Amino acid sequence: MAGKDDYYNRAKQQGYRARSAYKLKQLDREFDLIAHGDTVVDLGAAPGGWLQVAAEAAGAHGRVIGVDLQRIDDVEKGDAPVETIRGDMTEDETKDAIREAADDRVDVVISDMAPNMTGEYNLDHARSVHLARQALETAEELLGEGGSFAVKVFQGQDLADFKADVEREFAFSRTTSPKASRQASSEVYVVGKNKLTGPVRVGDELDVEITGVGEEGDGIAKVDGFTLFVAGAAEGDEVHVEVTDVKPRFGFAEPIEE
Ligand SMILES: C[S@@+](CC[C@H](N)C(=O)[O-])C[C@H]1O[C@@H](n2cnc3c(N)ncnc32)[C@H](O)[C@@H]1O
Asked: Which atom of ligand 1 lies at the shortest distance from residue 113's CA?
């Protein structure tokens, strides 16, 4: 396995601004995050290693928007045009600036944001989760159906809740440590693929009316036009259900007692 100096040296040789570029390459290879033509929003983007990798992956028909507290030098690697915004992701005006730059279509949101480290484990963890939540909020707002998300977060007591929130918003989610992360680091990356945009999420309880029957014999209910298959329910039933699984275009639910 490559050690930290290998990645550092490789970054120098291959013209990447930061060894962290290899973390995004590894995440992209494993999860197919960025496709040609994608619009990518990269949060915590300075000095620009991820921007370089994203610009290569998105290609000439893609776009990359990078955001950081720090100024970022122009990126001249990869074919996608890269635009940068200097701002604080905890402030609304930065989110407004991204929305304006993105011009309504975003396919991928990635965040490598990290707080200034104090060395106090719980505090650094809490601040990292706060930044990761800003990234998730941005992804929830900007990603279209099927969009992808990857965010750095330091391990600690609030990680499980954060992972559960990512899991609710995406059809697929995983937590991973790319090889290029330093061994001593407590960072992990939470990945979400196939952004859900329907009106229900796993765990939701609601009253529905069964208006049809699916091929497998499940009842069909429509929630704002979204199809829910309800196990063991017959046409005409009015049932209280809990949503058990959600795919991009339909979901599954089971009747429960109120
Ligand atoms: C590990 S570095 C990112 C490295 C980058 N992915 C690369 O490959 O060059 C983390 C970045 O997060 C930024 N950051 C931390 N808090 C932020 C915030 N509230 N808003 C925007 N950027 C933030 C820092 O300024 C820092 O540049």
From this structure: 12
Q: Using the mean position of ligand 1's atoms as its centre, give its distance from the Cα of residue 195 in Å.
A: 24
Please choose from 10, 69, 75 the residue to mutate so as to test ligand 1's pocket, defined by most ligand atoms within 8 A of CB: 69
Among 78, 73, 199, 65, smallest CA distance to 138 is for 65
- Residue where the block lists tokens 């001249």: 76
Catalytic annotation present for 95: no
Let me know if domain 205-255 sits in CATH 3.40.630.10. Answer: no
ipTM: 0.99
Residue reference for tokens 């990078």: 66
- Write out pLDDT tens, residues 5-63: 799 999 999 999 999 999 999 999 999 999 999 999 999 999 999 999 999 999 999 99
Rounded Cα distance between 228 and 115, Å, is 41
Return the domain boundaries, the chain.
4-195, 205-255
The one catalytic residue in 152, 163, 193, 195 is: 152
> Which are the contacts of 73, defined by CB distance < 8 A and separation ≥ 6?
47, 48
Architecture of domain 4-195 in CATH? 3-Layer(aba) Sandwich (3.40)
Rounded Cα distance between 205 and 233, Å, is: 16
Strand partners, 46: none
Give the DSSP H or E segment for 241.
strand 238-246
Note the pTM of the prediction, 2 decimals: 0.92
